[in-house]
Every structure is written in C-alpha cells, then in structure tokens.
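Students often ask why we bother encoding 3D structure as a string. The short answer is that it lets us treat folding as translation between two languages. Here is a chain of 548 residues written in the first language.
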Amino acid sequence: MDILSYHQRSKHRPDAYARGPESIDWDAQPDPFRTFEAPDDAGRSARQIPLPLTASGIGRRWSELWRTEHRQEWVTPDRETLANLLELSLALSAWKQFGSARWSLRVNPSSGNLHPTECYVVATNIAGLEDGIYHYRADTHALEQRCRFIEKATDHTPLLWLGFTSVHWREAWKYGERAYRYCQLDTGHALAAVSYAAATIGFSAHQIVPLTVQDNKLADLLGISREQDFTNPGGQAAEREHGDCLLSLTGRQGLDTLLFQANHGDWCGRANVLDSRHFYQWPVIDEAVASALKTKPDSAAPDAYYTDQAPMPARGVLADEPAARLIKQRRSAQKFDPAGSIRQEDFYTLLDHCLARAEVPPWNVLQQAADVHLFIFAHNVEGLDSGLYTLLRSPAADEVLPPALRDAFVWQKPATAPQHLHFYQLLKAGTRRTAANLSCQQAIAGESAFSVAMLADMNDVKNNHWLYRQRFWQAGVLGQVLYLEAEAAGLRGTGIGCYYDDFVHDLLGLEGTQASWQVLYHFTLGKPEVDHRITQWRPYSERTPAAQ
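And here it is in the second language, the structure alphabet:
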C-alpha cells in the first residue's frame, strides 16, 4: 500500500471511521516515557545526566520575538543552554490529577496526550557534555548517554543537533490506523516548540537548520537501528522508533563525520518495553512507514516560499509576558464558553504569524513552510461576520484555489483585514453546527471563537512519497502557532485530529481533478472553561533545590 492509499484508507466518515481498537483498557496505556536504564548485553545502562531547570529566569518577552530590531545573535551552546532549550520545548509542564487518575502534561502538544515523539541530542565540543549521542528523558529532565564517541572530531567548534523519532504504537494503541497521521502532526508540534524555545533563549534564526537525511542514515546515527538494544534478555521486543528528522542548532554542517563516529562509538543501554500487551496489530501503519521512507538524498534544495512582509507586532493581553511563561502555560482546552470571542486585532495578528517567514519562529525548522492553507469557521470574531473564510499562505494558492472551489464562494476581502493578508470571506453564514459536525460531531469545534481546517495540495506526493510527512509536519507547526497565539491573547486552543475528511472537501467543492487537495488537521480556539475538579502540580517538584 502506498502512502496516498494509506491516506484514503485512514479517512473518517460518519458511517465508517478509520479502523481502530474496538475497546481500550485505560489502565494499560503505553508508558509515555522511554528509557535506556536497562543494562545491555554487556551489562551497562545508559548514564543519566541531570539538566538544570533555569528557563523560567529567561526574561525575553513574547512580543520581542516578533520585532525585527530584536534579531538575536549567534549563540554558542553549552549544557545550560541545551537544558533551557529542552525545558521550553519538550519537558513536562505540569502534573494533573482527577480522582485516582494522575497524568503529566508537556510543553509540546500531542494527540491524545500520548506523546509518540522522542528526542535525541548529538553533541560535539559542547561544554559540560562528553562528545556523543544522548536520549532526552522528559520525565526527569535529564540526558541518557547512549553513545560515547571514541573517534574525536578534528574541528573543535561546538556543534549540536537534535534528532526526532516516533514510537507509532503510543498513538496506535488508541487511534488504530489513523495514528501514523497523528505521529507526523506531533513531530511538527515538537519542531515548532524547539524553534520558539530557541528564539526565547536568543538563538539566531539562521543557526537552526533542518537537515535532509535519508531514513536509514538517521536511524544509524540515533541508534534506533540497533536491534540488540530493543530486545530484552527474555526475548520480548521493545517498541521500535522510526526516524523523523534532524535539526542542526549550529548552522549547516555535514553528517559524514557524525555517522562515522556513531558507527564506531561506544553504545550502552537497552530500551524499555512500553506496553507488554499489544492486543491489536495495525500492519497498515508499517506499510505507510515503508512507503513514505526517505531513501534518496535531495537532488536540489526544495523551492520554498517566505513572505518579505515584516511581522505584525504581538498585541495580545499577555504579549508582554515572558515568552518562557507563555510557552510553559500552554494547555489544550477541553471545553469552551460559547459566548467567548477573540478581539479583531488579536485575530489578524494570529493570522499574520501563520505566514512563513525565514527569520521568525517557527518557520526555520522546515524546508518547505507555505504549502498548508487555513479555512476558518468564524463563530465569534469581533468585527467579523460569522461565516467561512480562508487564509492563503502563498501567492501560488491565490492563483490555484479560487477556481478550484465552489462557484458560490464570494472571495471578498474584509475591509478590516490588513492588506498583505490573502484573507477572504467565502460565505456569510452561521458556522457553529457545521464546524462541530465536520469535526466528528465534537461540540468543542462549534463552541469556540473560531475553528480551522488545514488543507494542502498533495499532488506532488504522488512522485515523492516522503513529502507526505512534511505536509503533516507543516500542519503540526501551524497548530503550535495557534496554540501559543491563543495563550498570548488570553485564550486557549486545541488540536482536533478527528474529522470527516471528505465531508470537508465536499463543503469546499473539491472534487474530480481537485481531489489532490486534502484536509490534514483541524484546530479550534476560544475562551476556555476550566474544570476546577482537576488538581495541578508543577513538574519536577521532587528534585532538590540543588538539582533544580
């Protein structure tokens, strides 16, 4: 099965949802935390290196991230810089409890709070770290040293990379065949979280570079191809990880030396089993993985569109709060107040920050950033009629989409909209019921200030299957933009992975030759209603002051 056939198979319809488990044992959820504490065949565990928790002291305000006069300088990373970066991107943000149930939240969002994304650190000449490869432990905010480089680099420049992988079973346990999509969205969430964290710390946008790596090479570099490290002595296999992507945090660097060091390095530790009982099997996900592998290097850098328009200043009610505080307070809303609205200036600022800009977070983590476009169900946006709108994020879409959609759409630019935004009203109408129905009849999509459907043209995926992953990463990055813009506006958002795919396409009039346009993600944003029955604690409270 190729990746586009997988996409078709994993669609939801009102009469037939994508295949998933018939029942779920909520007390047997897969372990959300991967570790390499278990000894390997040589009897050695991965050494754990605690990281300091100091990011809350970073004072850069959210509004400063959007000011061109506040462009950051090149940062030479060290152990504390790395600790701050991970604390503001992939660490725990809280523990919650309701009755006897207790669960953790993280800075980066995840479908169902299941967190399939794992992160590895590759470091050479970083002060406070031995050269090698490390696995990040979100539960303890620590690094596990998986590999010590024996062959030392001749270049003494500090170099740092982050590698991302996915444990597909964590999502498949709940969502079945559709889980592969959600894992890709979560990779996008994580990439965006890293970009925002880097900007908050002061990294130059130019020193963060997404690297094109073939999947087999990425697996070798991160150690996830080491069969012996994912099988315990009793023969039970730990859930495998699949490589996603690699970010350089110190500019564009070659990987040949790194791969040599990893292949000749001193590895230790064994992966834990996350779920001892796999009641269901989803071989379709394995087929999707195989189809979407990146097996060849790019022949040329991909074309990428970025707007030259300077970003609008952040003016939300919390925009002058420290960025670190906004980032760490991000939550997914569970319920909205239908009377809640979003201010017009906050709405347009949010749309502006969805445009891809090469020097503004979070777009520096993607090779292609403007292929996903927003269709907006405006329920209660101040100064805007209720109705269906669209934000087109590239000039190419402005040419292609209008003739592809319904003839009845008016394509009228609101008088209040900033001139540089390709933002149009398509239809004036009440949208609450439609938005809820399209999102698998979830009320949360209709009770917010507005909801979003993200669509992309998947035509080029036919000849380059691995682009499927990139499209979902883009949608996930946009999701994190919306999450944090909501927080800055004093509101809250939540991603929605359950929607009736083809019903969205039918609403827009996409059919026949236009069927390559596909919906990838839904999102909704508004004034949250907080459940005060849930108790919340700060993360890492068990660490001693000295370890903080």
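Translate back mentally: The chain has 13 helices and 17 strands. Keep this in mind for the problem set.
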